[in-house]
Each structure stands twice: as structure tokens, then as C-alpha cells.
TrEMBL record:
TM segment ranges: 21-40
SUPFAM superfamilies (UniProt xref): MCP/YpsA-like
Keywords, alphabetical: Membrane, Transmembrane, Transmembrane helix
Domain spans labelled DprA winged helix: 243-291
Domain of life: Bacteria
GO biological process: one example: DNA-mediated transformation
Family as reported in the entry's similarity comment: Belongs to the DprA/Smf family.
Pfam families: DNA_processg_A (PF02481), WHD_DprA (PF17782)
The protein's name in its UniProt record: Uncharacterized protein
Length: 298
């Protein structure tokens, strides 16, 4: 670690007052911004990735700070998409700071280093890394539930992208309910175990507290009274599509579709379709998965 974490006594930020000290690196002022926590399964599906790409892109365009827990799956994609869209991000660790760069999740380290100048982590204006744990404390079964509660306290609300029926995500959800914060859950495939937890939160929840069914970013914008900057930007993008590109985009969805199935739907030759899909990838509107499958972004 190139920078020494600081200790901050947070007494003036609501819902964080119960923490005597917080260790941190980066821009502590991000805590005073509109922050929203996105959580979910470590075993993220392609559907979950599409949801994260959509919501994080729109949050970044509306200057909403994303918050995640820095492990695989949903957390990783929230982190990566926020950096990709030049947004602000808060990371909550489930261990002491000295374990932060011990190659626990090397893909995070690689992306984080690429984001900063000269590989020295000297510019932390867009990032805040928090830990409630003292130096030397390794990750364990009891530290992560505590981390999950911190995630709920930092954000003004919580969005559950994907979760199994028995999920650590529920620690975050329960804490958010306790703090009277809105909790949204993304509905998914009824046959997917990674959506079972979301369906449980929407249908049953905990002690009469149920999650709101998330269906559109406008829900969040309206709740927090933020003017949706994304609408105008998205409309301008659509104006530059030609008829064939629009046809391809209409065929695609958040679920992976095989190249051959797209070919049948749009009635193009394979080389022409391949060129157009590549162009849409470059525009950031299509993502290739597992070689010959494609999903639509945003």
C-alpha cells in the first residue's frame, strides 16, 4: 500500500455515529454526497451484469456515488463500471487495511491501479475506501456481516441486484430497514437461484419490511428528487442509429442471444452482422459474452 490510511472520528454523519473510528483512504467528503449502495451475489449472472451496467451508468451520469463491498460478483462489476464511467465510488472493506492489497482479489487491484496516475494511487479524489477494522485483522465469517451493515449505513438506500435465498446480502438489507432506508430488489428468472433472494425480499421480506420491486431508474431519481440527466443523453444517442442498427438492438436484450439467432432475426449475412455488432460494441451499447453470445447494454 503506497498511502497510509487515516483514522477519522465520524460524529457529524448520520447513521455512522455508532462507529467510534473509521479507517479510510481517499476523499472523505464523498460521504456528504448522495450515495447509493448496490449489493448482490458473488455468483453474478449475465443478467446481473447487464443490470449493474445499466444502473451504474445512470448513477454516474447523475452524480450519484456508488457504494460496494469489494468482493467478486456484483461488487466487482459495480466497482469496474463506476471507474469506467468516471464516477465516484465508496468501497467498504471486511478486514483491516493491511490486507487490502494482499492480492485477495487481483482483478480489483489491476483495475484500481489502471485508474490512478503512475500506479502510485496518488489521486484518490473519486474514491473512498473505508474499514471499521484495525490493522492486522484478517477477513473472517464475522467481519463480513459487520462490513455488510456498514454498506447500508453509508448509502442513502440499497439495491439488491441478485441474491440467493440464504445470502449475506440480507445483513445489509436488515440494517437498511432498521435505518428506515429504501431497499430495492431486482426481479429475475424464477428458475435462477441467484434471483430467489430478491423475490423473497419483494414478496415477504423481514418483519413486515419488504423490498420495493426495482424496474426503472426513474424510481430512484424520483425518490431522491434528482433531475434525470440520462434521459436527454440517451435520446441523443438513439438519434444516430441507422435502421439496421436499431433492428439489431431491438432483437437484443439483457439475456444472452447467440449470433446465429440474431442472424435469423435481422436477415443479414454473417460478415455484415459481425461488423455491425462490433460497431455497437465500440459504441458501448452491446456486450459480447462467451464468444458468440451478445447482450444489450443500457
Amino acid at each position: 500500500m503506497y498511502l497510509k490510511p487515516k483514522i477519522h472520528n465520524i460524529k457529524d454523519i448520520k447513521n455512522l455515529k455508532r462507529y467510534k473510528n473509521i479507517y479510510y483512504l481517499g476523499n472523505i467528503d464523498l460521504l456528504n454526497s448522495l450515495c447509493f449502495t448496490i449489493v448482490g451475489s458473488r455468483k453474478i449472472t449475465q443478467y446481473g451484469i447487464s443490470v449493474v451496467e445499466d444502473i451504474v451508468y445512470k448513477m454516474c451520469k447523475n452524480n450519484i456515488v456508488t457504494v460496494s463491498g469489494f468482493v467478486e460478483g456484483v461488487d466487482y462489476h459495480v466497482f469496474k463500471e463506476t471507474l469506467k464511467n468516471k464516477g465516484n465510488h465508496i468501497i467498504c472493506l471486511g478486514y483491516g487495511f493491511d490486507h487490502f492489497f494482499k492480492n485477495i482479489y487481483p482483478q480489483f487491484v489491476k483495475d484500481l491501479r489502471l485508474f490512478f496516475k503512475n500506479d502510485l494511487l496518488t489521486d484518490l479524489s473519486n474514491i473512498l475506501i473505508l474499514s471499521q477494522f484495525e490493522f492486522g485483522l484478517p477477513p473472517s465469517k464475522w467481519t463480513f456481516p459487520k462490513r455488510d451493515e456498514l454498506l447500508a449505513s453509508v448509502g442513502k438506500g440499497v439495491l439488491v441486484v441478485e441474491a440467493a435465498k440464504k445470502s449475506g446480502t440480507f445483513y445489509t438489507v436488515k440494517r437498511a430497514f432498521k435505518e428506515n432506508k429504501p431497499v430495492y430488489a431486482v426481479p429475475g428468472n424464477i428458475f435462477s437461484p441467484q434471483s430467489a433472494g430478491c423475490h423473497f425480499l419483494i414478496k415477504e421480506g423481514f418483519k413486515k419490511n419488504r423490498a420495493l420491486l426495482y424496474s426503472d431508474f426513474t424510481q430512484l431519481i424520483n425518490y431522491f428528487g434528482v433531475n434525470n440527466k440520462q434521459d436527454n443523453l440517451k435520446n441523443k444517442k438513439i438519434m444516430v442509429f441507422d435502421k439496421v442498427e436499431s433492428t439489431i438492438l431491438n432483437v437484443l436484450s439483457a439475456e444472452p442471444i447467440h449470433f446465429d439467432d440474431i442472424l435469423v432475426s435481422v436477415k443479414l449475412n454473417s460478415s455484415k452482422l459481425n461488423i455491425l455488432l462490433t460497431k455497437l460494441e465500440i459504441k458501448g451499447l452491446v456486450r459480447r459474452v462467451n464468444g458468440s453470445y451478445f447482450v444489450r447494454k443500457y
